[in-house]
Amino acid sequence: MNILDIITWFVYLLSSVMFVMGLHYMNSPKTARTGNRVSAAGMVIAVAMAFIHLFATGFNSSLAIILLVLGILIGSAAGVYSARKVKMTDMPQLVSVFNTVGGGAAALVALNDILTSEGTPTLVVLITAGLGVVIGSITFTGSLIAAGKLQGISMIKNLKLPAKAVWNVLFALLTVLSLVMLCLNPGNRPLWAILTAIFALGYGLVFVIPIGGADMPVVISVLNACTGTAVAMNGLAIDNVALIVAGALVGAAGATLSVLMAQAMNRPLLSVLAGGFGGSSASTSQDQGTQGTMKETTPDDVAVQLVYADKVIFVPGFGLAQAQAQRELADLGELLKGRGVEVSYAIHPVAGRMPGHMNVLLAEANVPYEELIDLDDINPQFPSANVALVVGANDVTNPAARRPGTAVSGMPILDVDKAQHVVVLKRGRGKGYAGIENELYFNPNTQMLFNDAKVSLQAIIASVKELIA
Amino acid sequence: MNSVVIAITLFILALLIGVEVIGKVPATLHTPLMSGANSIHGIVIVGVVIIAAEAHSPLSYVLILLAAVLGAMNVVGGYVVTDRMLEMFKSSKPDKGKGKASQDEQASAVTTETAKNQGADK
Question: Is B58 helix (H, G, I), strand (E, B) or coil?
Answer without folding.
Answer: helix
